[in-house]
Records
---
Amino acid sequence: MTTISLSARELAAQLDRTRMPVHIAIIMDGNGRWAKARGLSVHQGHQAGREALKRTLKACVQLGIKYLTVYAFSTENWRRPSSEVRFLMTLLERTIDEELDELKRNGVRVRVIGRLEEKLPQTLIEKVRRVIEETKHNKKLTFTVALNYGGRAEIIDAVRAVAREAAAGRLDPREITEENFHNFLYTNGTPDPDLVIRTGGEMRLSNFLLWQLAYAEFVSTPIYWPDFDKAELIKAILEYQRRERRFGGRNEMCA
Ligand code: FPP
């Protein structure tokens, strides 16, 4: 069987521009397997993963996507070999140094979610603060990096904040709703993702944005993250557009 692979331009022509996702979240998986398949080191896999992230961010800007959120380092990732953890931290620092100007030129606002004050190297925390500060007025795309992030930890942190407000008499527990609970999450101010993409073929959420992904369309692709590009991104958006988004209600056909 011959498979014809369409170019990003040909795929983009199929997009319904009136139904683009506002917010895309990505679980970037498969760096290790990509490297292993090529006889390369895991570090080289992450390095190639960084290039895929740069491509994807650029493609999102070109497609007019307003929010992109990526899972860069989970609370579970500390269990990896210490040399790999150190490499990832250094790669993040280097990426901030190298990409800050480009991010500013492209109108990208950077946000970071996760337990920032815990465990991360001080040099990284300082660079993260700098990139957040220097891009905070940018409007084209909000790029959120989940770093030392866990979805359950985020919910626990929100519950603690709610409980503090209630204990101080500033919040009546009867007034807590799904809408205002969102204000206590790390993603406060960001609309929930419409589409979540996972590369590397797995079908799990792996503790990513547990609250926010309640109604998102999940698209899993077998492509390893370092091979992800604009064409793959558009394929995922096309899949999203093919699905009926009913939010648990009925569509017109069933009414
Ligand atoms: C998963 O691949 C990827 C990660 C744990 C980290 C994601 C990191 C990058 C994309 C590198 C650059 C990121 C930034 C923000 C500079 P894996 O190692 O779990 O793959 P495997 O499942 O094949 O082992």
---
Amino acid sequence: MSSAANPLRDAQDRRLPRIAGPSGLVIFGVTGDLSRKKLMPAVYDLANRGLLPPGFSLVGFARRDWEDQDFCQVVHDSVKQYARTPFREEVWRQLGAGMRFVPGVFDDDEAFARLKSTIQDLDSSRGTGGNFAFYLSVPPKFFPTVLQQLKKHELSDAPDGSWRRAVIEKPFGHDLASAQELNRVVHQVFRQSDVFRIDHYLGKETVQNILALRFANTMFEPLWNRSYVDHVQITMAEDIGIGGRAGYYDGIGAARDVIQNHLLQLLALTAMEEPSSFDAKALVTEKLKVLNAVRLPKDLGRHTVRGQYAAGWQGGRKVPGYLEEEGIDPDSRTDTYAAVKLEIDNRRWAGVPFYLRTGKRLGRRVTEIAVVFQRAPYSPFDATDTRELGQNALVIRVQPDEGITIRFGSKVPGTSMEIRDVTMDFAYGESFTESSPEAYERLILDVLLGDANLFPRHQEVERSWEILDPVEEFWEAHGRPEPYTAGTWGPQAADEMLARDGRSWRRP
Ligand code: BG6
């Protein structure tokens, strides 16, 4: 009987968990921060949720004089410290039995030969079936060497009936030309459909919920256009500084670090048309279409701002300025704050500005998308009664307080017709009993399942650089970033940028 004829079975099938088939994961750069804080815990959480096959194997590759047990201990410690789900001895034992470590540097042929025989051993001892994903969690300068070594040692060639996939961590280049070159190298070794570029924001539940909010409901989409929307603000604020990441961050800066990827992906999901389905190809088509319609304002001096944090107070303690951070060139012009105004040249959004901002050491950690609506075309109320009425807004709270807020005006109880803003809230924690998986759990599982919906394609990456490159070039040619005190909401120029348009930033 077809599932269409049997709705009950169809409903049950949809509740079946998506479980990865026989497979293994090789992590290059396994001693790095990302691996310890995110990747290893995510693998354990997946195993703990029963979403990995019994013989799943994890191979670490790095320049360390480690045996398998040493690697196992490192994973154990990171799981204990960072995993989302409780530690269970039996899950750990099964996962630990499939852990291997291959010591070596990236241009060492012998190390790659050892990696090859390790994979073959795992195929016979753990039944991984030749299916391996190679996770490049390494500085971009090593990408070409690792990829070429995988090719040279035939590790990128999937034996018959199995798969080999590459997972690439950002940054995908630092401008359009370097991204194109990187994509050329990657595609010399892996087919497009076997390359998974990580943008971990797409793995967040709240980000996937943008699609549900817009396309599973009827009440929002009719308003989601230039007739009702005044402007959109996309904010990714962090309270942390650059921590131990000076080597990566200096010279890269806030705009390249997160606007080029996370924020432009949020913009694409917020502004795109409804895709014909939710498979990777249909989603990329729509995201790319809207990214192609994105336009920078002509006068970049008036519509972009960059800043750099100076010493200040945060969380009750004194924190150093960016230029005093360890490993930073005291004359660095790197932006730790960036704000950009973008327009979208299409029928839906013509004339509606999208303001994107991000920064380190801001007032607090918050990521949100605020769709701010126009004021009512006519107000029948006394001006004094609506003094405290702002603009209606729908705010998608990506993190940390996941949910959606709608802001609208309401009568203040009493004898007059005073109207004030109130909010209506949906909070994940209150509406669902399930807790949200970490972005990396979802993304690693998708790689093992070969599901590319939540991974940007190279055309999106390149288009995003094309949007950002003129801003970076403009900044390069024009002075220094404006200092802002740590713990505040960024440089004054950012407030002025919006004030010139008769608007102001939200203070989340
Ligand atoms: C990364 C950036 O992509 O995202 C970091 O490189 C940033 O600079 C991080 O701190 C923030 O991620 P999240 O999930 O904590 O918002």
